[in-house]
Amino acid sequence: MFYSFAKFVMTLYLSIAFGFKVTGKENVPATGPVIIVANHASILDPIALGCACDRRIRFMAKAELFENPISAAVLRWLYAFPVRRGRVDREAYRQSMDILKAGGALGMFPEGTRSETGELQKAYPGAARFAIQTGTPVLPAAVVGTFAGHRKGLKRFKEPMVRVVFGELIWPKVDRAGATVREETDALAEEIMKRIGELIMIA
Fold this sequence. Notes:
By secondary structure, this protein is α/β, with parallel strands linked by helices. It contains seven helices and seven strands; from the N terminus they run H-E-E-H-E-H-E-H-E-H-E-H-E-H.
């Protein structure tokens, strides 16, 4: 109930303050496991992505956010879970796999951290690796306007300022002749960022 209430409140906020607009929702699979990936330039990105999607997204969030008991409680009520960056986090890996095995939607930002310039960064292999290991499709999304909106104030009642665009599913290619797992992972990670970049351009 908390997730639904928070989503309603934040959708209302984004709509009034930022002219929130969502396109491509028909590309979101109604059921089954999916890895939802997007660019990351603002703390508003997971909020906008969660509000845009009809499905409940379980996001990875950096472990530091769970050090404060209040923020940790809120994040857990929103079904987020911690991941320790810069190392192998077996617990985060286990939780991610459990989410996908249960047919859930796993939310990830392939860049690993927020972009300081708003420009796309190179992807870490995590999302691509999960997709290849499990055969789960990847749903690319672009979140546009949060970087400028978070830093430069609001432009109310004009053209939509914060926009989320969902693209078509990317199905992982497995067992390609002569390709190693590392090569397939790197290729998929590159394809993910390419598709996100294309969505940003049309948002």
